[in-house]
Design brief:
Blueprint lengths: L1 H8 L6 H25 L5 H25 L2 H15 L1
Length: 88
């Protein structure tokens, strides 16, 4: 989804760095809410799922770092795919 957003923005006057930052911020907020709910309701595999969240967020941070370094959309695709697979 993130690569698709960036590709859609390609050639337009859209700030791709802002798109990546917004996606990371949205995901952080989503995972935070989900982690809180899992703790509140005593979700048995909380620790495992929370670790998946942490790994996925690290993946998004890597995407952001790579984008800031070279701004190459094609190089982001495998990183985005890996990050999404980690969260399942």
């Amino acid at each position: 989804m993130l690569v698709r957003l960036i590709q859609t923005a390609k050639g337009r006057k859209m700030d791709k760095s802002s798109l990546i930052k917004a996606e990371k911020n949205h995901t952080e907020a989503h995972f935070s809410r989900e982690n809180n709910m899992m703790q509140e309701y005593g979700f048995p595999p909380y620790a495992v799922h929370a670790q998946e969240h942490s790994s996925a967020l690290e993946g998004l941070k890597e995407i952001q770092r790579q984008w800031n370094d070279d701004q190459n959309v094609e190089q982001l695709a495998p990183v985005v795919s890996d990050a999404r697979e980690q969260h399942g």
